[in-house]
Amino acid sequence: MRTAYCYHCGKSHPIELMRQLATGTGKRWRCIKSIEATKVSRETRDAYGRKITEINQIDNEHRARFAAAIANSRRSGIA
Ligand SMILES: [Zn+2]
Questions:
Q1: How far is the CA of 47 from the centre of ligand 1 (A)?
Q2: Vertex 35, ends 29 and 36: CA angle to 5°?
Q3: What is the whole-number distance in angstroms between the Cα of residue 17 and the centre of ligand 1?
Q4: pTM summary value
Q5: Cα 19 to averaged position of ligand 1 atoms, centre (Å)
Q6: Residues 6+ apart with CB under 8 A from 79
Q7: How far is the CA of 70 from the centre of ligand 1 (A)?
Q8: What is the pLDDT of residue 25?
Q9: Closest Cα to residue 36, out of 44, 26, 24?
Q10: Residues 42/47/53/56 CA torsion (nearest 10 deg)
Q11: CA 22 – ligand 1 centroid, Å
């Protein structure tokens, strides 16, 4: 069985489970498993980032609405 050294794991895997990637220092082998794992973690991070953006937007809307409500009550002489 042909194997190649996986620069990500630091050990050899069967070549069928690997992809050859072009890097700054030349072509390197990396296993599909580690590539997929990186992709998944990036997607998870992106999803987390989107969630935070969403929360911030909601927060800003609430703040704007609250400020508007205060301004309105001042104008009508309630506060
Ligand atoms: Zn690997």
A1: 25
A2: 150
A3: 9
A4: 0.59
A5: 10
A6: 70, 73
A7: 59
A8: 85
A9: 44
A10: -120
A11: 16
Q: Which residue in the block uniquely carries the two structure tokens 């030349």?
A: 26
Query: What's the rounded Cα separation, in Å, for the pair 32 and 74?
Result: 63
Strand, helix or coil for residue 14: strand
Cα 27 to chain center, whole Å? 26
Centre of ligand 1 from the C-alpha of residue 48, in Å: 26
**Residues in the chain, overall count:** 79
Place of tokens 């980032």: 49
Q: What is the model's pLDDT at position 1? A: 85
What is the residue extent of each domain of the chain? 1-39, 41-79
Where do we find the tokens 């104008």? Answer: 75
Per-residue pLDDT of the chain (79 residues; tens, 9 = 90+): 899 999 999 999 999 999 999 988 899 999 999 999 999 999 999 999 999 999 999 999 999 999 999 999 988 776 5
Position 4 scores a pLDDT of 96
